[in-house]
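>> received
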Amino acid sequence: MSDVSINDIVALCKRRGFIFTGSEIYGGLGGAYDYGPYGVELMKNIRNAWWNAMIYSRDDVEGLDAALISNRLLWKYSGHEGSFSDPLVECKKCGARMRQDKMKDPTKCDNCGSTEITEPRAYQLMMGLSIGATADGEINAYLRPETATTTYVNFKNVLDAKPHKLPFGIAQIGKAFRNEISPRGFVFRMREFEQAEMQYFVNPSEDEKYFEYWKKTRLDWWINVLGIPAEKLRFLPHVKLAHYAKAAVDIEYLFPDGFDEVEGVHNRQDFDLGSHTKSQDEFKINANVMENKDSTTKLAYSDPQSGDSFIPYVIETAMGVNRAMLAVMHNAYTVEDLGDGKTRTVLKLKPWLSPVKAAVIPLARNVPELLDTAQKIENDLRKLSIGRIELENSGNIGKNYRRHDEIGTPVCITVDHQTIEDGTVTLRHRDTMAQERIKVADVPNRVLQIVNGL
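>> returned
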């Protein structure tokens, strides 16, 4: 187990502006968090890294951004409306409500230890909405509980607009909503969260090959792009498969309390497109799907060579972006002993993930010659469009270094009196605290190398 606790991460997030408790001034709301100045940057950088790997680095995956609110029929035929629930129990003594399958002991209340527990009942996880002038309070739409289903119903739209041969994928990043019984683990399990999901459509005869391909591809991304050591990650195959799955595996990260899921890779066979397609009886659908008399579109693929029309299988990769951020921060959080009873806290992020890419620090506060040069360097770095650049004008170089260590800034650029004399500045590197002296004119290229990990 790691010596770094979730409480350490929570404290850092509040202190340095990564994550705040939602509506905190009114006592907060369980499972709701707000992302501060550095949290939005880290989340954006994780999203960008995922999007680059899924879209920009490939020619077989297209992007999508579907609506958060969906027609009720979509969730009826996906199976969510009838079966998307958790087992809810209540303590008769203290009134606590708990998810039975996550309790420490299903016979005892997690809150007070009482054995007076109700029988479990199904608890609907979807958040229903009443929309329109004549809704009269009845649920007629839902906030989506995942991004995947909104991808499936756009399968034909994307294929018609941007033709592809199989295999090809559709990816999207966005918010999802679940009426969790007991949100937990800081941002690990929330009612409003963000997913990065990709649905890869394949010929049924090649499903197992691509299932293994995406398992390896996604694990490699966690290691090489997010910087998580291989020993902190593992595959956990699902022993009990969901009704739609032919095979499923979780990628788990070693959190302080043990391994837990950060991404899933699933072979969903032809359940999803088969569930939402028109004229189901025209196709050989292997999965057990509900009869659909409401769909207006055949979600099938026509093979250009054989002329056969069939329902593709789906290989899904589904990552929790909030969980990825939590894992990245936990892995990067480092406390170093500097001797003489002194320590420093460092967030050793991959530089392309860092919320601030570089900090420019005049050695003395409000000295015009130093400040002018610092502002010129700041402006030159911003022209690179590599992310957030900050200028610190407090005059306390030590405190500035420590603050940027904690938020993960890979390099600090110090402008001092020697800068005025010979046009050089000091680059101080986060992880090693090593310093190098370079010309002001060379700073943009050097920072660009550092941010790209060179």
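>> The chain has a mean pLDDT of 92.
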